[in-house]
Batch of 4 targets.
Target 1
Amino acid sequence: MSSKADLIVGLQWGDEGKGKIVDHMAQTHDYVCRFAGGHNAGHTIVIGDKKYALHLIPSGVLNPSAKNIVGNGVVLSPVDFIEEMEQFDNLEGRLFLSDKAHVLLPYHAQIDQARERMKGDKAIGTTGKGIGPAYGDKIARIGHRLGELLNPEKLTAKIVAYFAMNKPLFDAMGVEAPNEAELLVELQGYKDALGSFITDTTQMMWEIMDADKKILLEGAQGTMLDIDHGTYPYVTSSTTVSAGACSGLGINPKDIGKVTGIAKAYCTRVGNGPFPSEEFGDEGDTLRKNGHEFGTTTGRPRRCGWFDAVAMRHAVRVNGVDQVALMKLDVLDGFDEVKVCVAYEVDGKEINYVPYDLEDATPIYKSFPGWDKTEGVRAFDDLPDTAKSYIEALEAMIGTKIGIISTSPEREDTIIR
Ligand code: GDP
Ligand code: IMO
Ligand code: MG
């Protein structure tokens, strides 16, 4: 008997509230496994009066009984990971890092920032953390894996050779080669702090599935930021959709159980790139203020707008979503009317799918009556009638059940239907 893993994935442009739902579900799972992204992710979790910001450590860490796996699909910055670990005691035995995950080093961030400067007004608006260059090195087969940290002398020599090979390029970008002796000390420090956590997590995934453990797979970012299925080139550099869980952890499609897609009751985006239902006026400001829409990782204000049912249908199909968790319903409290993008207009024609270049799409809206208050509501029947109608209309438009509704950042303010 082998268990199937439940999967959590973001359906919009990230920051949908994945952390809250992973934390909620971790209470009934034995393992939480992160499969993609790096410390560009920022997952905020509120428990009582304590607030945690997680970037790379799976959001299961706040449940003492859940064990946490960081899979091979992740790019891991040792210095940032070590800092994040300092928030928690006793991680030994409940945190496991794939020896095949790629190492993100400070020079990747320098390259990322240099490229953004060179792009000028075409900049992606990355987090500047080095995500693109780290994945770029992986795909170009010049990256370094976590398993190599176990031999700092050898890895130092490899990184010195990497810099020699890239010298003309790095000189042009102003990226400095590290000092060899200092690099060795740095890598030795990473080995001391992380060595005991590094293991073959692919084998581990197979063993825990065969032992019928309850497993939750945690996505980062969102479908519209996926390297293939998002708004390229304004995307991140990893496979953020559910297929990434297989390659990013070494499991196969038949190992996947229930897929829960996370979506806000409205929509946000950080960084540049198309966002058809963006609101530039007072309504956008109100969403930003009520939703505290400022990035967990960079503090940047998030762009805000209405729920986009066309992009959502695309996301539901790409990910094979079984149920949607609709987050931050309370942020719409107090609006007289709430809008939903139901189709796009492209070149004078109405379409109901995501076109090649979303930049060309103008939203077509349908309005719904608003409501006073949903904040803190914990039962579907206790929601105002207009809020219930809004949720039921969304279900009909996206063709998927909304099985979870969140009405505040608090763990318990969650409606399960
Ligand atoms: P993630 O990256 O998908 O995990 O999402 P973030 O943590 O970056 O952003 C979601 C933010 O919304 C966090 O600050 C959460 O505490 C907060 N949040 C989550 N669910 C709700 C909700 O239902 N209502 C409100 N008001 N805030 C929420
Ligand atoms: P979570 O997991 C929102 C965005 C950046 C930028 C683009 C590329 O918290 O939902 P990158 O640094 O990855 O090369 O930046 O992707 N981005 C996110 N936006 N939430 C995230 O993660 C994001 N991770 C990356 O703002 O537009
Ligand atoms: Mg986030």
Target 2
Amino acid sequence: MSLIDNIDKKQLPLHIAIIMDGNGRWAQEKGEDRLFGHYQGVESVRNIVESSAELGIRYLTLYAFSTENWSRPEPEVNGLMILLANTIRQEVDTLNKNNIRLRLIGNIKMLPEYASRELLEAVELTHSNTGLTLIIALSYSSRWELLKAVNHIADDAKNGVLVPGAITEEVLRTYLTTSEFPDPELMIRTSGEYRISNFLLYQLAYAELYFTDTRWPDFGKEHLYEAIINFQQRQRRFGKTAEQVMPNTASDAH
Ligand code: FPP
């Protein structure tokens, strides 16, 4: 029996978000350049996107490049931009064949022109697909997103579009880059770091967090299945008591 048989298809996380960490260390441990790790990381991206679509996951967000990553050495940043643009261009047909819709979140204006052009074109070419929504977080950070939202809200309040004091959680959500997507229910971080690193800070409020020591280039389908099985074994209470969410269980869970 394979791990996939232990997954309850009726209790899949609606949205999985992943911090794909460890490419650089994976490469350096092999005596290779960090960029080699990112190239291998693309293979993991392919595997995880494919298995998410096969399982029937509706939304998958991948943290591909953070606002802070711009301060990495120039050759690594340039190499990553070329890799991202080329990968997406090459994958458009496969995305369409698998009914996958590509979306981007982040400050795309910061990207070199050739990269933003390729990426936005891929978004356009896949926009009518109705299966998995693959969201790539690029030049993204939560603090950037929240500041952008606050400034936009302040402008709209000044211009009479919003009434100060009457801004609800639902209204705030419409100003986030993720306004069209449900919050992630499962957040996975690879490579043994226990941090959120400025990723979807608002949206992850009630996500189940899953950390694994596996480096991203080694993270394959079976690792994803393990994370989902682990998620399905947890009790999600959203601030309520165990008895409220599962009336027939003991009261010692936290
Ligand atoms: C983190 O590892 C990884 C990145 C900053 C880049 C992730 C990008 C890819 C996998 C490329 C392709 C992506 C798509 C969506 C096509 P790290 O360099 O921080 O590793 P380290 O912590 O070991 O240094």
Target 3
Amino acid sequence: MVTVGLVRLLVTGGAGFIGSHVTTALLAAGHHVGVLDVGHPAAHRRPLPSTVDGAEVQRADVRDATAVEAALNGVDAVVHQAAMVGMGVDLDDLPEYVGCNDLGTAVLLSAMARAGVGRLVLASSMVVYGEGAYACDAHGAVSPAPRTEADLAAGRFEPGCPQCGAPLVPGLVDEHARLEPRSVYAATKLAQEHLAAVWARQTGAAAVALRYHNVYGPGMPRDTPYSGVAAIFRSALAAGRAPRVFEDGGQRRDFVHVRDVAAANVAALDATATKGFRAYNVASGRPTTVGAMATALADAMGGPPPTVTGEYRAGDVRHVVASPRRAADELGFRAGVPLGEGIAEFVHAPLRA
Ligand code: UD1
């Protein structure tokens, strides 16, 4: 790992759930940080603060080229967290996802090129993989097709081998895996990566994409169509309701603590000393199931046990858990918050209204 000195940074989306933890960690690492954030209503129900941990917040949209150009003045590197996240509500969300995530990234990258800012850390997501890694006893490593509506409606949640239909064994997905986004949000995240890679190649710049797995922790948005499942379960339990676990609860995810994600960004910034594009999983390396997460939260909060509903969402993938190895080898990043400790803190931590 190459270590670089103090850097003047712009953190887009730096007032959001993950962005504010990233801002705090970058400040603690000694960097100078300015924040650009639009206060998007999908993530913010309250007016933006004027500072995040002392870093000044400029309220502007990443699609606003004039505001972005002004915010890049004197900046050495950009940490791009601004995005619309989650599964959304329906396809009416499509233009806003593409606008915020892809047009926003395009405006940012072109402004960076004009300003000669050649270092980017990009918040990407494990959703770029679609389904995670699977193996069939007979056919080895395989990539199952998206699950059909008929399979899901019949409660057949596990994808089968595309060649023989046999049950598959889920494994750890690494950064060489095929990229196959299966939701609008996932498609916009992959487009961001492609744009960043092209930008890095054409300008001789450096871009590091961090493929976050399921981030949880203090400040998570409470309970919106754009919230992650840990916050949805916690909000239900806080209201005395059982968490509603979709499918059969056996879907595997890697829940990674937001402070670990922030630490990964600090490490990734150092890696932008090397030109080119490189992507990394940001994961704990300790997968669990959604059902187990619901039970752990219910136990920690003394609430009713989860209800497994059999509901399903179009575009959801079954299992996606990561190998954290490349980030460990090349960035020196290892998640440090054990899930039990993270949950014990999370059940009492303030959430975002
Ligand atoms: C999540 C994030 C996404 C991020 C990705 C990787 C959200 C909404 N999604 O995707 O932005 O890029 O991790 O970091 O933050 N579920 C239930 N009950 C519910 C809601 C969901 O059982 O009430 C299940 C879903 O069916 C799914 C699992 O929980 O199987 C996870 O869902 P979710 O938290 O939305 O996350 P991902 O789709 O994995």
Target 4
Amino acid sequence: MELKIGWLYPNLMSTYGDRGNVICLSRRCGWREIEVTTIPLDRETEAEAFNHVDIIVGGGAQDRQQEIVMRDLKGAKADALRHKIEAGTPGVFTCGSPQLLGHYYEPALGQRIEGLGLLDLVSKHPGPDAPRCIGNVVFELTASPLAEEVKSILGTNPVVIGFENHGGRTYLNTAQPLGKVIIGSGNNGEDGMEGAFYHHAIATYSHGPLLPKNPFLADWLIKTALQQKYQRSISLTKLDDSLVVAARAAMFKRLNVTNLLKY
Ligand code: GLN
């Protein structure tokens, strides 16, 4: 079997290390002898290229780079990305990416950046003097059916560990939250929600990068992509995650939430 990872604007939206999500997906496929190709979806890419990817990864960026991306991600390219996500292509979109998948992002300075309107949410930066949301973030996965499907793999309610660094605050309208904040700001530091979930798209403020710290999400993306592509039920070979389990335990201890230590 093989998978193609579409990586959104790698030269513009990799400010916060989210390339680690691409590396994690590639490794966890390679360890299972699933052939992986990573395709940059950037300013040089034609809209048609979006049609051939099986998983989409979008990272974080500064306001300026987000504005450059949205000058390019419009017309046929925007339609192609919308179509993929509406058709259930799995993806993980971090921070600056989901801000652009919503209706708009109002940056710290300058004009409102119109988004794709795919996720029913808006994002607003409170201004250059406002404190950024920076630090470790821990949240319980609540989005349906993602949480149930991950729980069926883990055998327990999944808790996600990440690291946030954003000025923009996101407010969900009808978009389903990805999770419930335990530690950190999450979407806006006010409503206790983190991220969003739509079809098979995971939107989150969690850098880290997210997937190496929470490999059950990487495996959910891989399994979902393979099932979409090959139109049959897929079960993934279990990998030795003892190292990440130990790293998560260390983080839960450091953050004084060892009671959450279920996985
Ligand atoms: N520039 C956006 C903000 O400050 C996104 C930041 C990010 O992607 N980490 O909210």
